[in-house]
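Figure caption, in words: inputs first, then the predicted bound structure.
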Amino acid sequence: MGLYSETIFPWLLDKALGHPNIQRRRQALVSGAQGDVLEIGFGSGATLPFYDPASVTSLTVVEPSDGMNRRAAAHLAGSPVPIRSVPGAGEKLPFADASFDTVVCCLTLCSVQNVGQVLAEVQRVLKPGGAFLFLEHVLSDDPARQRWQQRLNPIQRVVGVGCNLNRPSAQLVRDAGFQLEPMPVQEEERAFGALKTLTPLVMGLAIKA
Ligand SMILES: C[S@@+](CC[C@H](N)C(=O)[O-])C[C@H]1O[C@@H](n2cnc3c(N)ncnc32)[C@H](O)[C@@H]1O
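Bound structure (S-adenosylmethionine present):
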């Protein structure tokens, strides 16, 4: 892959998404993880410090980008929980059915190639009663903002290496058969600094029936 997607973009992402507002939300998201946990789209490992060894037995992370995996590798040794990194993509997870108590997606559904397929895989690898935790930027409810999200999406896909501004991810989670539960922190708000009008955030907890 190219210099931009494998070297420059992972570096940029660390800078852009390392903002304290985003870190606070990552922490709130991951605090709900317990048991055997899978994180899809681990990136450079920004959620890692927030996994609690008192409730997380093991953490498996899946990330398709070599550049992201290179950046994440530096953090793995300091992981607060037992961790294994597995190359792969969310659309075809290399795990048996009902393997995990919790699956986490943090700012990942925006970037995967096929959200429906990823969510079907999440359903498959979760144990019954297992939790799917997600934090995503989504399509706005406001028509004026939606228009800008649609207009700018082709540019975002290039700059953000496949990231989309216009995915209604919470609705897609419902469409995949998950029931959304209230979270201790559940919010939709504008939190990405200069890009805030284009990236309203949704944090959700969905339980596998
Ligand atoms: C915006 S980044 C977020 C990274 C990290 N979760 C974070 O919070 O900083 C999106 C991540 O999803 C990964 N990704 C893209 N397509 C994927 C797929 N099909 N399956 C799993 N991860 C994917 C990208 O390589 C990238 O690391």
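The mean pLDDT is 90.
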